[in-house]
Structures are given as structure tokens and as C-alpha cells.
């Protein structure tokens, strides 16, 4: 937003420096990115008066002029057809630096010396008009600088306005903020309209079939206007804030836009049909030609302005070519409306058709203040065009603006900001902003927000305003204390747990992958994941990002493919992220869950000798999961072979207690081949939500280090193929005596033959807390344990050889 400081001073009596203004605006949230002199390229141009003008002796289209520039009289050769004696004109003398960086030098044109240049508007980069030289007001003094004589805006601030502050997209809006910041009075623009002739309400009827798209639509009519150039003061002011002047009618709409932030649109009334204006959505596939001459294909969410026979404007974005103001226009129908921001935003983005009007409509405009903007516009149009303003305003407001009432507690404000703002400061701040404050209840005020502050919705918005005006830069940087209860809650939160998983994964040597939540449907199809669980993206960036992932391994396999394409062989990857599932029963129709994915490919060890050259296998991925559970201080998991899995073979379910917390296994070879794997790919898909729940519920206890020696016994058991090693270990722990400290599987031997029996060797560790165990005590307890075990399970004990 370009803010002319002189224009702003018409509303606020600010007499400080521009630098102080820029600094204060920045500190209250409207960052001034640059201070600009919009006419810096014209500082060498002076006012001249053509004393005489005669034909060039050697050229029919050139004139030889004598020009008074105050301190001297110059001989200038000019090629403009409209140059004449007595004119007051802009002149560049020898040595002047012109727009574009050209420095004027003495020259001879067809044998006649030229000591300067009389300039056109295009040569000064004011407009594209090059039909002739620029002719100025004859009252200007020769020799005076052009920028001073025309009182051009010399200081413009480029302000970065945040999306929530739509009220600051105007000179008046930023003037309001300056008034609040410096405690100055604000003088808002007013309108005094002289009406005559017929009532415009008898000329046109406004229809709004869908009020949610247009809560307010107003029209005024001007008759007998004369289309011409706007006066210099308006044209130069518009140029200063980056708007190209067109004619007196269109320029007024742009002037009001920049002054008050209200977009307006002018129609040639004589090109409208049916005596009706209707605000209605387009038909799907309908085509419409906008002011820029482009024929655009619309969809049924685009909002159009219609007359009795046709579409005449793309609401809030751009007018139509078929009702454009032109040089022959005599009657004007002026539109002032409020449209639904989301509708305008979608249309402007989809058509790649940004405009100053759509930029403001997308963020919201002042519904109450729009009437003042409309009246001020017709007043200026009548003054500049000589037209007559018809009586009345044609208006349809199906949804009047409802003033929000916001509670405000000063105690809460001070707690949140860490300040001690008094009641007088808060009330003065809100009043200067345009709010109505009811402080009858000293502890809980009722604040009514003004119509131009659409961002004020909640108490915290008012607290932000109090802090902003006080000065966010003045708030002391004190570190708040954190209570024990808050710390405990934090340590059980998802963010903390996800970071804990990442710390573990990095600690065991895995590399983190961060993938998009969006994946291709084909990737999920390849993994055999159900389609009914998927959530489709409404406007995907590409087909490769058309649905939300339902499994993090889809992204990890993509990372495998990219790394393999770059020649990487040994890969250990992990990703901690959310998977997303369709859930018709929930309010959002979606459910997300924290998942942990692990993936191994290639050699087990990073280097060669002395390490064996072996590839990662099932024991590696299983060992990682066991290590994770131990890291989280959870119980030992049971690993159960699954009969079938959509993308793993073999696949093993990881069970902790009564809950399955995930699955580990080898990615099926055909799937692995698609992702460029040269070796077996082992992966784990773990339920992060279940792990977090178990981790939060677990109680970590600390035991003193043992001071007495252990006694270890190795036991070999013959187990049928249907008995899992986990079941045997669990039974040993269950039936073991109090002195049994641990049970570890140390060896497996599967004899050849069809019996399917395996020999499992377990190491049992015994230790007493208060005395040193004797062999006889251990032998006795172990004998009881093995006797109980062989009765509970179909296993047989192999006594050690003597």
C-alpha cells in the first residue's frame, strides 16, 4: 500500500518528520518497507513560458521557440504539433537528467541550435500521452521547479499491510492508525451531494437472489457528464500512489479506492438494458469479456453483475467490455457494493486476474462506510465532469452489518502482555480506534467494534490492539516461569513424544526423511491400501499429490527410490509423521494419527573390513523395534507371524500386551523393484499414538545397582515348530522364582529332518538382593522351574552333559 504523506495530513494534523512517522507505523504493525519520492526523476524539470514560436527554416514539422525559464531565455527546437506562443510548459535545460537516466546535451536540429527540451507527459513518464507537449496552467511562474510548482507529492511510504488489516488498504485507514499512534484527532472525509432530476430508484431495480454472496449493493446515477482528462491535482496524486490516470470518471473511482478503501465501478448507463441490476453467479462454462479485452471462461462459483439481458461485470474483480465508460458516454451508473471475500478471492486466483478492487474485496470492506464513499465519489464526478447527480440511492441490503460486542478484561490483558496498562490508556486507545466502550463493569468491559475493523472479533484482538499501540518494542523481555504441572503436561504431549522418537532414531544411526503429506493414488494402490480410507485433495498441485497418505511407508519408499536413483546403496531411513484417514463419523470427516516408519536397505555395516559384508535382514529391523521399546521403558513385545499382508512378505505383527502396535517385515520383491531396490527392503510401520499412550501411562522406577554376584545357567529346550520362543521365554519368567532376574535367548538350533523341532538355548540369570546365592539353591529353584515349564508347554529339557 502506497501512502502519500501529504494526502494523509488532510485527515490527521501530523507535523513530525517522515522518518518518525515511518518508524511509529512500523512499530504498531504496519511495516514501512521504503520511503519513496515518486517524482524524483523530475527534479531537474522547470517551468517555462513560450515567448515566441516560429517555423523551422529547414523542416515543416519543427518549430523554433524562445522559452523564458526565469533566469534566462532559451532557444529550443520542438517537434510537437500543439506548441504555441504564450503557453506555460515543462522544460528540461542542458545538463538536466531525464527519466530513464538520459542527460540532456546541446544539439543542432537541421542547423538550428536547441538549448533544451519542451516535454510531453510520456517523456516525463507520467502517462503514455505523446500527442503533444504538456501544457500547464498559465499562472505558474517561469523558472520554478516543476515538482514545486505543481505541488507534487514528494514523500510516499510503501507500507506492508498484513492480510487481517484490510482497513489499512487506504489513506484514511493508515491515517486512523497514525492518529491512534500519536494521539491526534482524525478528520474523516465527508460528502455534500447536490441532487437534481429524476430519482434513480425509479430507473433501476437491484436483485440479489443469493444474499450470502452480496450483503449490500448500491447504485447512483449521473446524467450529462462530459468525459475528459482529470485536473492536474488528481492525476498527479494518483500517479504518486501508483495508479495510472484514465479519465475524470474512472479516475474518481480509483481516487476513492485509494482514499477510503472502497472499490467502485462505473457503467455506461446507456449500454445497460432492462432497468434492472442483478447480482448472480455465472453459469458453468459461460464466457465473458472483461475490460482488458480477454474472453474468460467462468465456473458456477464466479459472481457476475447482470442487467436485464446480459452479464456486465465480473463482480469485485473487473468490469465488462460491453458497458465500459468511453469518450461518448453521457450517463453513468455508479456501483458501490460489498461482496463475499472468499468468492472474490477464488475467482481472482483462478483467472489470474488480480486488481486493486479484488485485493480489497478479498480482505473485506467497510459495509457501513461504503455509503459515504459512494456519495463522495458522485460529488467529485459532478464537479469534474459537469454532470448532474440524480436524486436518491438505489439500494438492496439483504444482510445489514451487525456490530460485534466484545468483552474486555483489563486484568486478562495485563496477564497476557506482561504489562500494567491502566484503564485510561485502554479506554483512550479503543476510543481513538473508533470503538464504543461501556466500562460500567470495571472488571469486564463491553466494546463495540467499528465497521471498518473486521479483524476485531475476540477479546484477544483487543488485547493485541492495546499492546500494539503501547508498543510491542517496549514490552520487557522477561522469561516466564513454568509450573511443574505445565511441564508434566508438556512432556506427555504429542510434540514432545514425536521429538523423543526422532532423538531415538537419530541416535541409532537412522536418517530422517521429511515427505509431503500428499501422495499419488497409484502409490497407495501399489501398496494395496484400501481406497475407502483415503482423503482426496480438492485442488491438488499435481496427480502425484492428489490424496493424503494413509501410511508413512509410501513416502519412505519414495525416498528410497530417489536415493537409489542417485546411487545410494546403504540406507537407514525413518519418518515420524501423521497418516490421514477418512472418518465419516467425525466432525471434520477426517482422522489423523501419529506413525513411525523405519526402512533398511543394503549392507548392515557402513564399512568393509573388519566388518562382515552382510545385508540388513529381519533381525536388524526387529532389533530396532526391540531397542525402541526398551528406550521407551515399555514391556517386551511379542512378534507374531502374519498369514498375509498387502505389501510385506514375510510380515510380523508387533504385539504389546493386548494391543498390536505395528508391523515389520520385508517389502514384497515386485514392489521393491519398482522403487529401484537392488537388495531386500525391510520396513516397520508403528503406531505412534499407541506408543505415546503406553509411554504416558508407564511409570519409570529406579533400582539400586546390584552389589552381589549373579549366578547364570544355560538351559536347552526342545520345542515343536508351533511353540514360539517368545512363549517359552514368557513362561520361564512367569513360573520363575523371585531370584530369577532375566531370561535371554542365546542360541537356536534346527536339526535336519521332518520333525520341525528346534532346540532353543536360554540363559537364566539368578541374583538375590541380600545374600550370595549358592549353587545348590539355584539348582533347586531351577529344577522346580523346568518341571513346571514342561508341564505347561510341550517342550522337553535337555540336561547338560556331565
Q: Could you characterize what this model shows?
A:
With 802 residues, this protein is an alpha+beta fold. The strands form 10 sheets. The chain has a 7-stranded mixed beta sheet, with helices on both faces. The longest helix has 18 residues, at 775-792. The mean pLDDT is 92.
Please specify the SSE layout and strand pairing.
Elements: E1 2-4, H1 5-9, H2 18-27, E2 31-36, E3 45-56, E4 59-68, E5 73-78, E6 88-93, E7 107-109, E8 112-114, E9 116-118, H3 146-149, E10 156-160, H4 171-182, E11 195-199, E12 205-207, E13 216-223, H5 232-240, H6 248-260, E14 264-268, E15 276-281, E16 287-289, E17 295-297, E18 303-306, E19 311-314, E20 318-319, E21 332-338, H7 341-350, H8 356-361, H9 370-385, E22 388-391, E23 394-396, E24 405-408, H10 410-417, H11 423-432, E25 436-438, E26 445-448, H12 459-470, H13 484-491, H14 494-507, E27 511-512, E28 518-519, H15 521-526, E29 547-548, H16 553-565, E30 571-582, E31 590-601, H17 618-631, E32 638-641, E33 648-656, E34 659-667, H18 669-674, E35 681-687, H19 688-697, E36 711-719, H20 725-735, E37 740-749, E38 758-766, H21 775-792, E39 796-798
Parallel strand pairs: 11-22, 12-15, 27-30
Antiparallel strand pairs: 1-10, 2-10, 3-4, 3-6, 4-5, 6-9, 7-8, 13-21, 13-22, 13-23, 14-21, 15-18, 16-17, 18-19, 19-20, 24-26, 25-26, 28-29, 30-31, 31-35, 32-33, 33-34, 34-35, 36-38, 36-39, 37-38
Helix pairs in contact: 5-6, 6-9, 10-12, 11-12, 20-21
Amino acid at each position: 500500500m502506497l501512502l502519500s504523506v501529504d494526502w494523509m495530513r488532510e485527515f490527521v494534523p501530523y507535523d513530525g518528520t517522515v522518518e518518525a512517522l515511518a518508524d511509529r507505523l512500523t512499530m504498531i504493525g504496519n511495516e514501512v518497507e521504503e520511503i519513496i519520492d515518486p517524482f524524483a526523476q523530475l527534479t531537474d524539470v522547470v517551468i517555462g513560458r513560450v515567448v515566441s514560436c516560429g517555423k523551422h527554416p529547414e523542416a515543416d514539422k519543427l518549430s523554433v521557440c524562445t522559452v523564458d525559464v526565469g533566469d534566462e531565455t532559451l532557444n529550443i527546437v520542438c517537434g510537437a504539433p500543439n506548441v504555441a506562443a504564450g503557453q506555460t510548459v515543462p522544460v528540461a535545460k542542458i545538463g538536466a537528467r531525464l527519466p530513464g537516466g538520459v542527460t540532456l546535451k546541446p544539439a543542432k536540429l537541421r542547423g538550428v541550435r536547441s538549448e533544451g527540451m519542451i516535454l510531453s507527459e510520456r517523456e516525463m513518464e507520467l502517462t503514455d500521452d505523446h500527442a503533444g507537449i504538456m501544457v500547464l496552467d498559465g499562472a505558474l511562474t517561469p523558472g520554478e521547479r516543476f515538482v514545486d510548482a505543481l505541488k507534487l507529492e514528494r514523500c510516499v511510504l510503501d507500507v506492508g499491510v498484513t492480510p487481517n488489516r484490510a482497513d489499512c488498504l487506504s489513506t484514511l485507514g493508515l491515517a486512523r492508525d497514525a492518529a491512534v499512534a500519536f494521539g491526534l484527532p482524525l478528520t474523516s472525509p465527508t460528502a455534500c451531494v447536490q441532487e437534481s432530476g429524476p430519482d434513480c430508484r425509479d430507473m433501476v431495480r437491484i436483485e440479489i437472489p443469493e444474499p450470502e454472496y452480496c450483503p449490500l449493493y448500491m447504485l447512483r446515477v449521473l446524467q450529462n457528464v462530459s468525459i475528459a482528462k482529470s485536473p492536474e491535482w488528481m492525476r498527479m496524486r494518483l500517479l504518486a500512489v501508483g495508479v495510472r490516470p484514465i479519465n475524470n470518471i474512472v479516475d474518481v473511482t480509483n481516487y476513492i479506492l485509494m482514499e477510503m478503501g472502497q472499490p467502485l465501478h462505473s457503467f455506461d448507463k446507456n449500454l445497460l438494458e432492462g432497468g434492472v441490476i442483478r447480482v448472480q453467479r455465472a453459469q458453468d462454462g459461460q464466457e465473458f469479456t472483461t475490460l482488458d479485452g480477454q474472453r474468460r471462461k467462468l465456473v458456477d462459483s464466479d459472481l457476475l453483475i447482470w442487467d436485464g439481458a446480459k452479464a456486465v461485470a465480473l463482480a469485485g474483480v473487473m468490469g465488462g467490455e460491453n458497458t465500459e465508460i468511453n469518450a461518448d458516454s453521457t450517463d453513468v451508473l455508479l456501483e458501490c457494493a460489498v461482496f463475499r471475500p472468499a468468492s472474490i478471492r477464488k475467482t481472482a486466483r483462478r483467472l489470474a486476474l488480480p486488481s486493486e478492487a479484488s485485493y480489497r474485496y478479498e480482505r473485506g470492506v467497510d459495509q457501513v462506510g461504503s455509503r459515504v464513499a459512494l456519495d463522495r465519489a458522485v460529488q467529485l464526478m459532478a464537479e469534474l465532469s459537469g454532470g448532474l447527480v440524480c436524486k436518491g440511492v438505489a439500494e438492496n441490503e439483504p444482510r445489514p452489518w451487525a456490530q460485534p460486542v466484545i468483552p474486555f478484561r483489563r486484568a486478562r490483558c495485563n496477564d497476557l502482555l506482561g504489562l500494567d496498562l491502566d484503564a485510561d490508556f485502554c479506554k483512550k486507545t479503543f476510543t481513538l480506534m473508533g470503538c464504543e466502550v461501556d466500562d460500567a463493569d470495571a472488571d469486564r468491559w463491553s466494546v463495540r467494534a467499528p465497521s471498518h475493523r473486521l479483524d476485531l472479533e475476540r477479546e484477544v484482538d483487543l488485547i493485541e490492539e492495546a499492546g500494539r499501540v503501547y508498543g510491542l518494542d517496549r514490552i520487557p523481555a522477561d522469561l516466564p516461569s513454568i509450573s511443574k504441572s505445565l511441564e508434566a503436561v508438556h512432556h506427555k504431549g504429542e510434540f514432545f513424544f514425536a521429538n523423543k522418537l526422532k532423538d531415538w532414531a537419530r541416535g541409532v544411526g537412522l536418517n530422517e526423511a521429511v515427505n509431503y503429506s500428499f501422495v499419488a493414488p497409484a502409490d497407495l494402490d501399489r501398496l494395496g491400501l484400501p481406497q475407502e480410507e483415503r482423503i482426496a485433495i480438492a485442488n491438488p498441485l499435481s496427480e502425484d499429490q492428489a490424496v493424503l497418505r494413509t501410511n508413512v511407508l509410501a513416502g519412505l519408499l519414495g525416498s528410497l527410490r530417489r536415493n537409489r536413483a542417485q546411487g545410494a546403496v546403504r540406507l537407514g531411513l525413518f519418518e515420524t509423521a501423521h497418516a490421514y484417514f477418512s472418518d465419516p463419523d467425525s466432525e471434520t470427516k477426517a482422522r489423523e494419527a501419529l506413525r513411525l516408519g523405519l526402512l533398511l536397505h543394503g549392507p548392515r555395516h557402513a564399512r568393509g573390513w573388519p566388518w562382515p559384508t552382510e545385508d540388513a535382514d529381519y533381525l536388524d529391523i526387529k532389533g530396532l523395534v526391540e531397542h525402541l521399546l526398551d528406550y521407551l521403558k515399555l514391556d517386551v513385545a511379542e512378534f507374531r507371524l502374519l498369514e498375509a499382508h498387502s505389501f510385506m512378505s514375510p510380515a510380523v505383527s508387533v504385539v504389546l500386551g493386548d494391543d498390536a502396535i505395528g508391523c515389520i517385515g520385508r517389502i514384497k520383491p515386485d514392489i521393491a523393484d519398482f522403487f529401484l531396490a537392488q537388495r531386500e527392503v525391510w520396513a516397520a510401520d508403528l503406531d505412534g499414538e499407541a506408543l505415546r499412550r503406553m509411554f504416558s501411562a508407564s511409570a519409570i522406577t529406579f533400582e539400586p545397582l546390584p552389589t552381589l554376584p549373579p549366578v547364570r545357567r544355560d538351559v536347552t529346550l526342545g520345542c515343536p515348530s508351533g511353540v514360539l520362543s517368545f512363549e517359552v521365554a514368557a513362561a520361564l519368567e512367569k513360573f520363575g522364582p523371585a531370584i530369577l532376574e532375566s531370561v535371554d535367548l542365546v542360541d537356536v538350533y534346527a536339526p535336519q529332518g521332518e520333525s520341525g523341532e528346534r532346540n532353543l538355548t536360554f540363559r537364566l540369570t539368578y541374583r538375590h538382593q541380600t545374600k550370595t546365592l549358592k549353587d545348590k539353591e539355584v539348582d533347586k529353584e531351577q529344577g522346580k522351574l523346568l518341571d513346571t515349564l514342561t508341564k505347561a508347554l510341550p517342550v522337553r529339557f535337555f540336561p547338560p552333559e556331565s
